[in-house]
Amino acid sequence: ARRVAKDFGLAESTVRAIDLRYLERWNQARRKPALKQMGVDELFLGKRQKFWTVVSNLETGEPVWMGAERKQETLDEFFRTELSRGQRSRIEAVCVDMWAAFANSVRKWAPQSMIVYDRFHVMQHANQAVDEVRRAEFFRRGAQQRAVVKGKRWLLLTRWVNLTDAKRQMLNELFSLNRRLMKAYLLKESLEQLWQQPNEIAARAYLWKWIEQLRWQRLPAFQKFAKLLVTHMDGLLNYYKVKVRFGVVEAINGNLRLLLRRGRGYKNVRYLLLKAQRMAATKTEFIAMKKAA
Predict the structure, then answer these.
(1) Is the pLDDT of residue 47 over 90?
(2) Which of 185, 192, 120 is nearest to 158 (CA)?
(3) Which of 10, 81, 179, 279 has a Cα-to-Cα distance from 21 of 20 to 30 A?
(4) Which of 151, 152, 171, 150 shows the shortest CA–CA distance to 161?
């Protein structure tokens, strides 16, 4: 906006207003896709605005709506103001994290839809459990042994398939000195297999077998995590009834963060939403990146 304003001798606010009017006309003229598989996640916008709730269309990969904060009332507002009764009844599945407020709102406004808990947020809880084990081992060990655990946080949180040979060697050396960290890491890695089972029955059996492994491991952080999984088991296994695309929500949030960095923040959230929708619908950014490459 600053470069265009300079080239044409206009104020930056004028350029942004022209851009916003164009995006509004583009949005009104296009045919909006039906919302059958919905994703709900929060986005951190900064210290002042903090969290915003982002609703997305998992089939088209574009954000649909943004609302302030991450409360049940926020998602209630979306269902009440943006969707008709018929549109709500056509929602087949809603992918959310294990935040109770979102699930309660979905059950209230779209009770026929299946709640599917997002795999990335489940694994985020698993990583938090690994980190708790790491911190406990750091303080349990003596001063001489603490150097072994210190500085290994990101190494322990990275999946084995994404590690280089040198990093794997470092992890193996750490595991040879600390068996609890090895158990925590292997438990976290094996949980990924939950979403690769042939059907729901096999996935349920796998999850119970995974939980049974914790009985003799003496890992309180994973015991707490296992209780969370049992409480949300039906939502975890609904993935085998409706195969939603887990990565779409994270990709949309990544696009929004990209826009925020490039624009150095947005005062007008509607403008940010339209920018993200245009990016997803036209794939303009991908074309620009290919040409730049």
Answers:
(1) no
(2) 185
(3) 81
(4) 171
Distance separating alpha carbons of residues 19 and 24, to the nearest angstrom? 9
Displacement of CA 263 from its chain's centroid (Å): 22
Which DSSP letter does residue 173 get?
H
- pLDDT band for position 282 (cuts 50, 70, 90): confident
The DSSP line for 181-233 is HHHHHHHHHHHGGGGGSSSHHHHHHHHHHHHHGGGGT--HHHHHHHHHHHHTH
Among residues 37, 66, 35, 72, the alpha carbon closest in space to that of 53 is found at 66
Smallest CA-to-CA distance from 124 within 29, 170, 219, 191 is with 191
Query: Distance of CA 46 to CAs 50, 67, 254, Å?
Result: 5, 14, 15
State pTM to two decimals: 0.85
Cα-atom radius of gyration of the chain, to the nearest Å? Answer: 23
What pLDDT, on the 0 to 100 scale, is given for residue 292?
Answer: 53
- Both tokens of residue 48? 């002042």
Are the C-beta atoms of 118 and 194 separated by less than 8 Å?
A: no
CB of 221 closer than 8 Å to CB of 187: no
